[in-house]
Amino acid sequence: MRISRQRAGLRPALAAFMGLVLTGAVAAPAQAETAREQQWHLDLMRADEMWKTSTGKGVTIAVIDTGVDEGATNLRGQVLDGVDYSSEKGDEHTDWGEHGTVMAALIAGTGAGGERAGAYGLAPGSKILPIRMPKEGEGVTGLLVTPSYLKKWAKRMARAIRFAADSEAKVINISMASPGAENPELSAAVKYALDKGKLIFAGVGNSGDVKNELQYPAATPGVIGVAGVDRNAKPYKSSQWGPQVDLAAPAVDIVSTCPNDRQVCKASGTSNASALASASAALLWSQHPDWTNYQVLRVLLQTASGNDKGLSRDDVVGYGVVRPRIALTEPGDPGPADEYPLPDLGGKAAESASPEASEPAKGSAEPTAAAAAAGEGGGGGGVPTVGIAVGVGAAVLLGGAAAVWAVRRRRSDAAPTGVTPAPPYGGQPPYPPSTVPPPHQGYAHPSHDHGHDRRA
């Protein structure tokens, strides 16, 4: 991800190896608008209205990333002491990749930077617990795509998740990714975090229009895999797809705090989507502090965009685009406190499951049970009519329970074969030049254009 024009081309050695989930062409924002006016995702999610009900106060979100700059204007007073697993200079409050700070600001930014740089997070009342991961190649010689290195990366991620699980954080955001395979240590760490009452969100990756190779930890059972959509709720062209996708959130042209703290920056990627889904969970948990992690997740699922025949999922946006405003105003029945609502860890299907919900065909390029975009008409204080968080099945309750568990999934089913693995964090440089996308390599992004719910 290139954060600004001035930073393009810096640190080529790092760019050759590092590939955070958040990538894409980035442009300096139009200076005629204030920072807040450029944050279209907050307008279409109607954040100003939501903040009258909840700002995420009382909820801490662990950000497993490249570190978080606690001195960033929009994050002053928002960043707690965490842990540093990197040998890079500084500590968890030093951002070696200029990525973790952006994610933290998308979640908990206060807008204190003024008109030009005062970007807000979706949950400005929440707090950030930074967990700084090692840079790729730290303590390793040779190639970064060997099975032994990928195993080491998974072990490092598992350690970070366990630290977060033992902390005060309720939500764990992971806007990082690595190829590979199921790893027992990583799987055990995820299960440990769930048992400790946490929710884990992770971006599914940004190579959906190229190889669509499974990325971890988003593909790890128990992790909520988050895909990306644009301001019209159309799938982000590079967002990965498959059975690992549980929810979707805004990902394209998202404006947030720049690492240089003097302006705002625009970027695209499922890193953004994961951060906004994590913030959505914080908003809901703040309003319902007595709910368990499973109840918070269940309400996020059953209020996500759906279709007019009942809640279901597809491989592009999962159960739909997250809609925190609907979750706050029309949560429905949160369901059992101790029952994990997704099928990847054996969650039980609701007795009232929609008969239309069915398993998408393996390898299909046209998933069916889709959600798409339409804005909320009327009012809105100038909010555009094309909305982000949409779909008809906002709270389709049959007997008080939402049908969101009927689709059985095995996350390993979607792993393509015959492709060369990329380095951890996706194999994509953090500051790519504006170039033509890589050649298509045979994994076409599925089409997705259904649904007509006009509620944001």
TrEMBL record:
Region annotation (Disordered) maps to: 327-379, 410-456
An example Gene Ontology CC term for this record: plasma membrane
Q: Which residues form the active site?
A: 65, 99, 271
Q: According to its UniProt record, where is this protein located?
A: Cell membrane
Q: Which GO terms describe its molecular function?
A: serine-type endopeptidase activity
Which spans are transmembrane here?
386-407
Where is this chain compositionally biased, Pro residues type?
421-440
Keywords on this record?
Answer: Cell membrane, Hydrolase, Membrane, Protease, Serine protease, Signal, Transmembrane, Transmembrane helix
Q: What is its main location?
A: membrane
Biased amino acid composition, Basic and acidic residues: 446-456
Against Pfam families, the record matches this protein to:
Peptidase_S8
Residue span(s) of domain Peptidase S8/S53: 56-320
- Gene3D superfamilies xref list: Peptidase S8/S53 domain
Q: Which residues form the signal peptide?
A: 1-27
Kindly give the membrane topology term recorded for this protein.
Single-pass membrane protein
InterPro entries linked: Peptidase_S8/S53_dom, Peptidase_S8/S53_dom_sf, Peptidase_S8_subtilisin-like, Peptidase_S8_subtilisin-rel, T7SS_pept_S8A_mycosin
- Name the family the entry cites: Belongs to the peptidase S8 family.
Name assigned to this protein:
Type VII secretion-associated serine protease mycosin
Could you tell me the gene encoding this protein?
mycP
